[in-house]
TrEMBL record:
It comes from the Eukaryota. The keyword Membrane applies. PROSITE patterns: OMPA_2 (PS51123). CDD domains: OmpA_C-like. One of its GO terms (cellular component) is membrane. The keyword Membrane applies. It is found in: Cell outer membrane. This is Uncharacterized protein. Keywords: Cell outer membrane, Membrane.
């Protein structure tokens, strides 16, 4: 379900090659802290590699894992945990 969104992001990045982007990976609070950091970093790296495969400039992309440190929803519910398992793209100055 995320491929169309990533394809759209790749198209935008090709149109604006001057943009520097942080790709941030996140997890829910299940599992231990180190596992979640590794998992979130792997998520961010996977998105970076996908964007590169679609023509984005890898030198303009930074992948960073945040683990469970930046939740956007309550980890006490299944829906909240699902929302916290995410990757975000942010334009850097």
């Amino acid at each position: 379900a995320s491929r169309p969104v990533l394809d759209e992001a790749a198209t935008t990045l090709r149109k604006f090659p001057e943009l520097n982007i942080e790709i941030s990976g996140h997890t829910d609070s299940a599992g231990n802290d180190q596992l979640n950091m590794n998992l979130s970093q792997a998520r961010a790296e996977a998105v970076k590699q996908y964007l590169i495969s679609k023509g984005s400039d890898g030198n303009k992309l930074t992948a960073k894992g945040y683990g469970e440190t930046q939740p956007i929803a309550d980890n006490a519910t299944a829906a909240g945990r699902a929302a916290n398992r995410r990757v975000e793209l942010k334009i850097l100055e």
